[in-house]
Design brief:
The complex is a heterodimer of chains A (298) and B (488).
Chain A (H helix, E strand, L loop, with lengths): L5 E4 L6 E5 L2 E8 L2 H24 L1 H4 L12 H11 L13 H16 L4 E6 L2 E6 L4 E7 L7 E8 L6 E5 L13 E6 L2 H14 L8 E5 H4 L9 E6 L4 H18 L7 E6 L2 E6 L1 H4 L5 E3 L2 E2 L3
Antiparallel strand pairs in A: 1-2, 2-3, 3-4, 4-5, 5-8, 6-7, 7-14, 8-9, 9-12, 10-11, 12-13, 14-15
Helix pairs in contact in A: 1-4, 3-4, 3-5, 4-5, 5-7
Chain B lengths: L6 E2 L8 E2 L10 E4 L2 E4 L3 E5 L28 E3 L16 E7 L2 E12 L2 E7 L11 E4 L2 E6 L7 E6 L1 H5 L3 H15 L4 E5 L4 E4 L6 E2 L2 E2 L8 H12 L5 E5 L3 E4 L4 H6 L7 E2 L2 E2 L4 E3 L20 E2 L11 E6 L5 E6 L5 E4 L3 H12 L6 E9 L1 H5 L5 H9 L4 E4 L2 E2 L1 E2 L5 E6 L9 E3 L3 E11 H6 L8 E2 L9 E5 L18
The chains are: A alpha+beta (298), B alpha+beta (488).
Chain lengths: 298, 488
């Protein structure tokens, strides 16, 4: 709704902060001042309607994708496309891609309206990026959203297909069915990365383990799209073998997504351990993820 | 939804159902003991070029935005959302240093929990709200009382520890909610025992018994005579300015005498104070000049036939110019209402023009107690002394405060000068208000401050949950020098 959304520059005068209800974006465009200006104006005008469009079909968005009921909103269609490749083999609702889809939508209106060197839309950690020829972004990775500190970076350049980054984990803002602290995914769009990160984080799991606190999603949030599914609320200390088992389950699922191009790379984190999978064919041999300790090998 | 303990948040169209102790999908609104509360991110005040607004919306910025990067010292960390350590004697949540003109400044940022606090409400109206000492109620619960009237305004004193914690649980909750709403700039309906019902909101005109108050009176009736006597002279024979406090009569008033206005034989009801000034011409009310008068002639006794004459021209007007009537005496010396002559319309309009817009102003008043001060220094009384000696500047959400002389740190702040939703509450019930102490690092060390807890401004400049708002241009910048003149 025009007027409800808050849109203002951050004090650095470069990045634009947009907020409306649960949607919180940091937007930055690089290019000539007039093109950046056009991009920001276009993004702002589009942003003011996004939440209302989503809420208009919220009931549908909280359900798994169904070929009989395709949503009508532009953002919702991005969500639908991002999650429909997984269902019905794996449980997923359209909401699994909401943050990434909003980022993709805002980035797309910016790059359609203006010629930019590069740009990004960061929707609470789910990021859509635009890279002109020869451009690159270095993206910092955070293991524990509740204790932000960079543990590594991912470098994305224009010759790679990656245009979206997303992170999911049980400590994040959304509920997770798994126990990963964070799964960071690089994919061709933010909505795709968002959906994949959600599912890979769900797959990092130790079913039936007594040290994991699980609660029905509906007991925490009555209108959760996860209904009576058990979501992770606490993970006790795990043995090396347990971590290995959980990470291997997640890694196996992540690898299955590579050949279909659903993801380009993923970094899985659990209690200090990290696993990386990546599409070396598309990304080249140098690993995209690096940590302070050195390169993380795929 | 089947959950009876979940509440529905209507802050945005997502309309989350939120269970007790949980947050909505935005992480900003939560269910606290069955109530929807806003969990504010920590507010960082930016000394950006504010354009008279609390927050500068991107789309309304100047066309010629210069893209200037705002440097570190242009940011002031407010205590809004900083959290508090009460009741523990621990260092305040944030002790921030920022270098100002070569001097290391320290701002100790905390949120105080105030059960000794209240709101002083100034309501610009001459309409009768209620007698002094009468109880003021919100939702039927006593939350304060009527205190002394001031010139053109009625004052209410709301809150205080007696209503917050000394009465019933419900009285405390309603009092807390009333103070919170008023302090956060929301509108509140108050009812005065044996008086009026008034809707008040900081910075907005009051609504008294359903009527929107437009203007303050220009002065009492007598003062109005003094101000306008010259403009009336020669155009009208007699003027009565109707006022709840002092009704003025031109021909008897000193101002009329000086101009040589002849006696008119007018006879006023009420009690004569000094020549041309009458108390209690009527009961207080919400009609003419704050009285209960709807027909102004009811305050006049018959004219004295020895002095009055047929055709005598009489203007009756209220102290705000909102009510006026013009009469001429007939053969039997009875006032007959006629159309207001053009020559007098100007003076009535002038009275109106000189009446300032009626507003409600809300001053939050609280006292910083021992434990809050202990968050600043290991020796709390030294903070008090430092504040007294003007070495330490106290601000409330970055807004200037008036510090009461005497013991303790008791302050008042105009809530309209603070960032929005600066206040919170705890279920005690008590209000949570931001308070910042700014002083030189050297002075901070001297008064026993937690120097090892000082963090640089840069270290909290990240976007981790902080809300940045533009500083208001009419507020002095909290970090501006205090001891030297700012005009140098």
């Amino acid at each position: 709704m025009p007027g409800r959304a808050q849109i203002q520059f951050l004090p650095d005068g470069r990045r634009l902060h947009m907020n409306d209800g649960p949607i919180d974006l940091i937007v930055e465009a690089f290019g000539s001042p007039d093109q950046v200006r056009i991009a920001y104006d276009t993004a702002s005008a589009r942003f003011e309607h996004v939440l209302d469009e989503l809420c208009a079909e919220l009931t549908l968005l909280r359900r798994p994708p169904s070929g009989e009921e395709r949503p009508t909103g532009a953002v919702a269609q991005r969500m639908f496309d991002a999650v429909s490749r997984y269902y019905p083999q794996t449980f997923i609702t359209l909401m699994a891609a909401v943050a990434g889809a909003v980022a993709d939508e805002i980035l797309q209106v910016m790059t359609s309206a203006a010629t930019l060197e590069k740009a990004y839309v960061n929707d609470g950690g789910d990021i859509a990026i635009h890279l002109g020829p020869g451009q690159q972004f270095v993206v910092g990775m955070v293991e524990r959203p509740d204790r932000p500190s960079l543990f590594g970076t991912a470098t994305i350049s224009s010759d790679q297909p990656v245009r979206g980054i997303a992170t999911s984990g049980w400590r994040g803002r959304s509920f997770s069915l798994g126990i990963a602290d964070a799964v960071t995914v690089l994919a061709d769009a933010a909505s795709m990365a968002d959906a994949a990160a959600t599912l890979i984080a769900n797959a990092v799991d130790l079913p039936g383990h007594s040290g994991i606190e699980r609660v029905r999603a509906c007991d925490l949030a009555p209108d959760s799209d996860l209904g009576e599914r058990l979501v992770t609320q606490g993970v006790g200390p795990l043995t090396d073998k347990e971590m290995d088992t959980a990470l291997s389950a997640g890694e196996k699922f992540a690898r299955s997504l590579l050949p279909q191009g659903l993801i380009r790379a993923a970094a899985l984190h659990l209690q200090g351990q990290t696993r990386v999978v990546s599409d070396t064919l598309q990304l080249g041999t140098p690993p995209v993820f690096t940590t302070e300790k050195g390169l993380v090998h795929a | 939804m089947p959950d009876d303990d979940a509440i529905r948040c209507d802050a945005c169209p997502v309309l989350c159902y939120i269970k007790p102790g949980r947050l909505g999908s935005c992480d900003r609104y939560g269910n606290q003991d069955g109530k929807l509360v806003r969990i504010e991110p920590h507010v960082v005040l930016d000394r950006a070029k504010s354009r008279g607004e609390t927050i500068v919306p991107f789309l309304e910025r100047d066309r010629e935005w210069d893209g200037n990067i705002v440097s570190g010292q242009e940011t002031f960390v407010t205590a809004i959302g900083a959290g508090t350590t009460y009741p523990d004697y621990k260092p305040a949540p944030f002790i921030i240093s920022s270098e100002i003109k070569g001097v290391d400044m320290v701002t100790v940022v905390t949120e105080g929990i105030f059960s000794y606090c209240g709101v002083k409400l100034k309501i610009d109206t001459d309409r009768f709200l209620g007698s002094e000492q009468n109880t003021v109620r919100a939702q039927g619960e006593p939350v304060g009382h009527v205190t002394t009237s001031e010139y053109g305004s009625q004052m209410l004193s709301l809150g205080g520890v007696r209503h917050l914690t000394g009465g019933s649980r419900h009285e405390g909750t309603v009092t807390c909610q009333t103070l919170l709403d008023l302090s956060n700039g929301k509108s509140v309906e108050l009812a005065v025992d044996q008086g009026a019902t008034v809707v008040v909101q900081a910075g907005k005109p009051p609504v008294v018994d359903g009527l929107l108050e437009q203007r303050m009176r220009v002065g009492c009736g007598s003062a109005t005579i003094g101000m306008f006597a010259k403009q009336w002279f020669g155009k009208v024979d007699e003027v009565v300015v109707v006022d709840d406090h002092i009704t003025g009569v031109l021909s008897e008033h000193q101002a009329g005498k000086l101009l040589g206005v002849p006696e008119t034989g007018i006879k006023m009801k009420g009690r004569r104070s000094t020549p041309g000034r009458y108390f209690k011409v009527a009961e207080p009310g919400t009609a003419w000049g704050g009285t209960n008068i709807h027909d102004p002639l009811t305050i006049l006794a018959p004219f004295d036939p020895k002095e009055a004459w047929p055709g005598l021209r009489l203007l009756m007007v209220s102290t705000t110019g909102e009510h006026s009537a013009y009469f001429e005496l007939d053969e039997s010396l009875k006032p007959i209402q006629r159309e207001l002559p053009t020559a007098l319309q100007g003076s009535v309009a002038r009275i109106k023009e000189n009446c300032e817009p009626a507003l409600c102003t809300v001053l939050f008043m609280g006292g910083a107690g021992g434990s809050l001060r202990a968050g600043v220094t290991e020796n709390p009384v030294r903070l008090t002394r430092s504040v007294r000696d003007a070495l330490t500047r106290v601000t409330c959400g970055g807004a200037p405060v008036y510090l009461w002389p005497g013991g303790g740190i008791t302050f008042m702040v105009d809530v309209t000068r603070m960032p929005e939703n600066a206040f919170g509450y705890v279920p005690t019930p008590a209000l949570v208000a931001p308070i910042e102490f700014t002083l030189e690092l050297r002075d901070y060390a001297e008064l026993g401050g937690y120097v090892d807890h000082v963090r640089s401004l840069a270290s909290i400049n990240a976007d981790d949950g902080r809300r940045r708002v533009s500083a208001r241009q009419d507020n002095p910048w909290p970090l501006a020098p205090t001891k030297t003149s700012e005009t140098t």
